[in-house]
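Narrative of activities, Objective 1.

The group set out to show that a structural description can be obtained from nothing but a protein's sequence at a throughput compatible with the screening campaign. Below is one input-output pair from the validation batch, recorded exactly as produced.
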Amino acid sequence: MMVKEVAELAGISVRTLHHYDEIGLLHPSRTTEAGYRVYTDEDLAKLQQILFFRELGFPLKEIREIVSRPDFNRMEAMELHHKLLLEKRSRLERMIETLEKTMKHEKGEIDMSNREKFAGFDFSTNPYEQEARKRWGDQAVDASKAKLGSLSGDEQKQLKEGMNAIYRKLADLRHTSPASDEAQEAIGEWYKFLNRMGSYSLEAFKGLGQMYVDDERFTRNIDRFGEGLAAFMRDAMSEYADRRK
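Output recorded for this entry:
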């Protein structure tokens, strides 16, 4: 199959397939004399596994490392995908059931206890850290925490002031295009700022921006500087990362 056919089949863009080829994640088995990429059934099977990993939140770098291992076993990977997706479905079903009951309670159709209202929620551990560890690995998160822990009170205060200054600058730009030169310059400052505290790849930076919107607590905190800032930062961070890949 040609690259356009594969893109339509998998529901992804041609640009994504080109990017996978460029970073060594998925090379087409053959290239014609005219330079056209040709994908085999084996390539499609590998692409399917890559997309399963993506659905579960794995960064591209980690996916490449996993599928490139000499001992990589496709069936074992599929069994893992199956297990993790079932767990994800179970969590979503519990949340949906709680939401449906809450809606009936609000309409006066049923009585709902306070305990029932929170069925399915579990914030016994830090969800931000869990997500960061899943996406970027323990080493980056531990390094960031160690860096912050080593700072004095004054240094931590200066760090917070620097962070807030960038937020305010981005808030002033949030009604412009995330791809504008001003927005990209400001979001570049944010990327450099984050890397003062830890080590964030471009892919991690892009994923973090998506989390700003997906997790309402991130959104709420960021949008204190201006409504819609979280979504603006997500788009600007995505643009910044894509330009530099």
